[in-house]
Amino acid sequence: MKKLKISINSPVIxxxxxxxxxxxxxxxxxxxxxxxxxxxTYRSSLFNPLTYIRLFTHVIGHAGxxxxxxxxxxxLLLGPMLEEKYGSAKILGIMxxxxxxxxxxxxxxxxxxxxxxxxGIVFAFILLTSFTGFKxxxxxxxxxxxxxxxxxxxxxxxxxxxxxISNLTHIVGGIVGSALGYSLxxxxxxx
Length: 191
Description:
By secondary structure, the chain is mainly alpha-helical.
């Protein structure tokens, strides 16, 4: 009988999940100070170096273990497949672009709201996954259905519910995932 071994099939996704877990534990230990100063993004002075760091690190922090587990379930489910298809460097780039864009939009539209968590990346991955079978000149029906279900539900919840969930971040993450999914799967124009 062949001996089984554990393989590291998705290094970026696994490291990201570990960083998120460590940040959540650190935030718990510090009574919320870690999220306040490092793992959430909000409008702050452009002269503060942490402002630029938080543009990216807010996706690592989470409000609590329930928030973390909800996001990690999707990231650990979708991320390895996407990392295998696009490669580690592109997945890291997709995550960084999503973090930056969601942070920027939050800062511009909601200057008094702190944003934390990887929900934007989750929605980027959900929409990006629907492009895995993309063919030039076609829009996958799965993409349309996923966009209607996920983005539509976020718009509905954003209008009808007033909770601490950033529906705009989910929508922006989905838009980023859609745009990157389309651009990464297009064939270059022939010369």
